[in-house]
Amino acid sequence: MSNVSLKNLSKSYDKNKIIINNINLEIADKEFIVLVGASGCGKSTILRMIAGLEEITSGTISIGDKVVNNVPPKDRDIAFVFQSYALYPHMSVYDNIAFGLKMRKVDKKIIDQKVREVAKVLDLDNLLDRKPKQLSGGQRQRVALGRAMVRNPKVFLMDEPLSNLDAKLRVQMRSEIKKLHKKLDTTFIYVTHDQTEALTMGDRIVVLDKGVIQQADTPQRIYAHPANTFVAGFIGQMNFMDGVIENDGVRLGEVFVPLPQNIRDGLGDRKEVTVGIRPEHMSYGDIKFTVDVDISEMLGSEKIAYFYFGGSKCSAKLSPDIEIGDKIELSVSPENMLFFDKETGKNIF
After folding, report:
1. How far is CA 313 from CA 111, 237, 318, in A?
2. Are strands 155-159 and 78-81 parallel, antiparallel or unpaired?
3. d(CA 273, CA 279)
4. Is-contact 42 31, C-beta < 8 A?
5. What's the pLDDT tens digit per position in 165-222?
6. pTM for this predicted structure
7. Distance in angstroms (rounded) separating the CA atoms of residues 259 and 252
8. Which one, of 154, 188, 156, 211, lies nearest residue 9 by Cα?
9. Rounded CA separation 144/158 (Å)
10. Rounded CA gap, 208 and 82, in Å?
11. Are the C-beta atoms of 82 and 145 separated by less than 8 Å?
12. Which helix (H) or strand (E) holds 341?
């Protein structure tokens, strides 16, 4: 079993600098889980603690049924793929992949068999004699993956492995890593600050902020039902507006939106809320209003139009013929609105 369990996990350098604050997380056997958050949120620190490269302040880390708090990194049966690839520049691709097995004094015939098997899977079999400087960024990344794969570890740990690649190669490598996960059928823990990587790759996403888990759920649920305003704004684009509750609806600036009874009842006796609407939902619904396009961004088949609505700067995904200065009619529906508590930022529903 290659499940990973984090219980009451904390990391601090002193009382005033808490990096990880009492995290509890169960990662299932063979799950692909993505830790995502802004720089400094603690995601890489968690990965390094699982690997044994960073000491924990309190709590326990278990891999399988074994608590590994005091187990050296080399004995944890994990593989770490670094952001910088960390390849040995003086060694060939073959020797880079084989290095871990050679250090464990594995028989040469077995090493050769494993290296060539992995090289074939990663399409590196024609590059085994080359040095890292003779490879492209994507090829170097595959060598780093191969060095991890050849050991058949229980858990793969990946720390922003695609951040050094260009946009086109990142898309290609995302799908390659997903294929690799299915092929190897083991647990992957992947760290990124890129929301697109998180949404497209993870079975589950763990959103972190200031060392605290804000939400851990499937990509679909996190996008459609964010736990709070931080998650809503970090995963995907979100328009936030101040909403004033009036009788049977909510007022957004000059626009009044009647609410179904179940939503109105759920808001309770609140007088003010924060309303969130995704840009793709700003042109669906019965409540129509007109805005002036302030800025537009071309995205090929559509444009992002920016405008003021409800006292806030908002955006909508629209057809590509929209121009700056245009007056456009938009519409909203309460079914596509998210309602957050004004003080706590939590999703009311």
Report:
1. 59, 12, 16
2. parallel
3. 19
4. no
5. 888 888 888 888 898 899 888 999 999 999 999 999 999 999 999 999 999 999 999 9
6. 0.91
7. 12
8. 211
9. 10
10. 20
11. no
12. strand 338-341
